[in-house]
Specification:
The complex is a heterodimer of chains A (265) and B (225). Chain A is of the alpha+beta class. Chain A has helices at 71-93, 103-111, 120-134, 146-156, 159-171, 216-223, 227-238, 241-251, and strands at 6-7, 21-22, 177-184, 189-196, 207-213. Chain B contains ten helices and three strands, in the order αααααααβββααα. The chains are: A alpha+beta (265), B mainly alpha (225). The interface between A and B is medium-sized, with 16 and 20 residues. Chain B: Destroys superoxide anion radicals which are normally produced within the cells and which are toxic to biological systems. Destroys radicals which are normally produced within the cells and which are toxic to biological systems.
Chain lengths: 265, 225
Amino acid sequence: MVLQLVMAPNWCGCGVASANSTKISTNAFKMSSNRFNFSKPYPGRAYRVTAYYSLTTPPYELDALEPYMSKRTVEIHWGKHHNEHVERLNKHLKTSAFYGHTLEEMVKATYNNGSPLVEFNDSSSVWSHDFFWESMQPNGGSMPKGGVLDQIEKDFGTFTNFKDEFTFAALSIFGPGWVWLYLKKNERKLAVAPTQNAISPLVWGDIPIIGLDMWEHAYYLDYKDDRSAYVNNFLDHLVSWHSVMVRMMRAEAFVNLGEPKIPVA
Amino acid sequence: MALRSVVSRKTLAPALRHYRSLTTFTLPDLPYDYGALEPAISGEIMRLHHQKHHQTYVTNYNKALEQLDAAVSKGDAKGVVQLQSALKFNGGGHVNHSIFWQNLKPVSEGGGEPPHGALGWAIDKDFGSLEALVKKINSEGAALQGSGWVWLALDKEQKILKVETTPNQDPLVTKGVSLVPLLGVDVWEHAYYLQYKNVRPDYLTNIWKVINWKYASEVYEKESA
């Protein structure tokens, strides 16, 4: 098992260190040395290092998204639903072959090409919910600027077209699911797609840029059955274009989006 | 027949098409007031569930049927197949909820009264006791990830009762052609969230107070005859 000194990827880039830390397990790491026992560096001290997941904290107060997402919704959605997935994931990991994997690796591997393994639902839900909280910010919404806007206009025609496509996809889902803005690696362009249940673009190898939870628990307390109001408010007031910018920057390390437009003097 | 030799199939077909009409569906009325199932299920939930969610399934099912009719008439095989998921989702939603409203009854009208007669014996035979059946339905309902339904079903072929779950709005028949729904419990979040929030197990515990066993018994006796 690989020894990983890892802070799980925090793409928000808001300068807030997320509480998610994968601690290192040294169970399989036995160096034999007469002088220094790396697996028990402090003899006499009782300790055990494990690699489980924890509930990351959204990068804002729980009431910061009001009035578009109420404190009560965030408290229950994050504190109960998201938390339940974390706890269930850790329960699986006690006996799972995927113990020690990063979350992203686990999501891709346990999706198993459409015949998901038991760990998929919870690992993907944990990943997607971390991503979701970081896709929003207080005083979000309105318009992106600069490179992000350019890329959206390049791939959707206009910003309004993007919003229409995103909304249409969100409302087209049958049952619980998510809607994503994601970067297609092979085609090197942004696209919108809805997914069922806990699936995300990670499973088909693309790079998520925005994720919106369309499960009923995400909006029912605030909007009842009015999904389009929920999606519109997300786009107009909550989506964090700052997170989008950071995620696009990171994505450019993997996908060549072309030469930057540098004005010639 | 002489007439047939004169009138070819091609000329007959448009005339026949003219007489075929599309059956559309309407939202069935609830046999009780929205608030009649309180405190097990709140009036607000019942109203939204019936007037918004079920109505939407009916509306979209009718839309899908119209599109299906057009595709069938045109011989558009691809179009017909593409409509299948919309038909299953919306048609299933209409079928399932129509059964669900019958499965519930205010306490004052007998809701929650345990089953007697043939169904009661069948439950004891196949599950041991009513408590065991309720426990099984509740645990399967709580464990269902995402949205769906949990059913008490009669397998007409094997002549036994079963507990089944279906995802989203898939009707019970998708789990087996010989399965007849006796009771269905909606575990979509819209069925309980406003009242019970994320605590689905509490919803499942409380819904038994308003379950209409009489309807389930009638269906059971009719289908197992």
